[in-house]
Each structure stands twice: as C-alpha cells, then as structure tokens.
Amino acid sequence: MSALTLYHSAPSRSSVALWMLEEVGEPYGIHLLNLKKGDNREAPYLDINPMGKVPALRHGDAIITEVAAICCYLADAFPQAGLNVPIGDAGRGPYLKWLFFGPGTLEPAILDRAFPRAAEAPRAALSYGDFETTMNVVAKAVTPGPFLMGDKFTGADVVVGSNLRWATLFKLIPERKEITDYIARFADRPAAKRAQAKDEQLAKA
C-alpha cells in the first residue's frame, strides 16, 4: 500500500492535487469519491475531512486538506522533485505568496464573476479587491515568465496554472495573450498530461 493516498473525485478541485502528485513522481494510491452520490458527505470521509470537500491527502499518519496546502506539503516533503523554493532562499516568500494567491485571491475573483451577487460587494470586503486588478497582477507576473518564479516551475504554477486553465476552458475570464501563453508553457508537461489522462479514465469509472 502506498504511503500517499489522494482522496479524489474526477474531475474536481482535487485534480490539482492529482497533477501535483504526478509532478512529484512518488508512488500514490487514489481513493475515489463520487460527489454526485454524496460519498464526500458520509461519515467515513468526514473523518478524513470534516468539511466534506476534496481533495484530501494522507501521507502516513498525516492528513492534509486544502489544495494549496497539499501542493505546498508535497513540494516540501519531496524536494528532489524541484517544485518548491526552500526555506532560507530569498524567493521563498514570493513563492508562498503565489501558492496561496490561487485559492485566496484568484479563484474567488473568478467565481464571483461567474456567479455575481445581487448587489456588488464593497471592494474592501473582498479578498481579491476587484477582478480587473487581480487579472492584471496575474498577467504581469507571468510576463515574461516563463513561470511565476521565472525559469523555475514550482507548485505555485500547479495551483495558479490550474485555476487559469480551468477558467479559460469555461471562458470565465477574458482572453489575454499573457495568460494563454503561460498556460501553453505547461500544457504539454508529461505530468500534466498523465494527470489529465488519469482523470478521464477515472471519470468513466
């Protein structure tokens, strides 16, 4: 039995963690959950993640939830994969900023635009401020790139890149060359293609 187990639904937010596991290259198992049947809201899984969400990752006795936390954990736990910026490196702070920018700023901005409120919320009340600023900051960060940390592809690109790829696929963000170019730089990564192929197979299961 693998020491790493991903609690996963295909496709979903946990697809981000699946991609990260493929990038890490360590053996892992998948515990597949059917969200439509409510597997994630039943007692066995709620013991793993009381929020009833995916993904969750078990590594030995440790259980980690939340996508960015899982990606950060895996990058640090398996530094030989070269997906983190180590503690003590001057780039660690910016790396962590981008790692958590995905779920804390970018995803809320995209979802609020996709599902607008009846009345617009005050800018100061939103974690991202406003949509245009969020997208401008992302576009500037990936120009000239090639990645968020320059030449180094990291777990932050898995998190932010997944959000942007998903939003672009469903036309939830305006098309911008800076962002489409950024997505194209990692679309052909072997790990990304393996994760996508696995998700397609699992979705049929």
3D architecture notes:
The chain is built from eight helices and four strands, in the order βαβαββαααααα. The chain folds into two domains: 4-82 and 191-204, 3-Layer(aba) Sandwich (Glutaredoxin); 92-189, Glutathione S-transferase Yfyf (Class Pi), Chain A, domain 2, CATH 1.20.1050.10. The protein has a four-stranded mixed sheet, covered by helices on one side. Strand 1 (4-8), helix 1 (14-24) and strand 2 (29-32) form a beta-alpha-beta unit. It has helices spanning 14-24, 43-46, 67-77, 92-114, 131-141, 155-169, 177-187, 190-204, and strands spanning 4-8, 29-32, 56-59, 62-65. With 205 residues, it is an alpha+beta fold.
Short account of what is shown:
With 205 residues, this protein is α+β, with helices and mostly antiparallel strands.
- The number of strands is 4
Distance between the termini: 21 Å
* Assigned CATH class of the largest domain: Mainly Alpha
Class from secondary-structure proportions: alpha+beta
Q: List the secondary-structure elements in sequence, H or E.
A: EHEHEEHHHHHH
List segments where confidence is low: pLDDT < 50 over at least 5 consecutive residues.
Answer: none
Oligomer: single chain
Q: Major sheet: order of its strands?
A: 2-1-3-4
Return the CATH topology of the largest domain: Glutathione S-transferase Yfyf (Class Pi), Chain A, domain 2
Q: What is the helix tally? A: 8
Overall number of domains: 2
How does the major sheet shape up?
A: 4 strands, mixed
Question: What spatial form do the alpha-carbon principal axes imply?
Answer: globular
Average pLDDT confidence is 96
Strand content: 5-15%
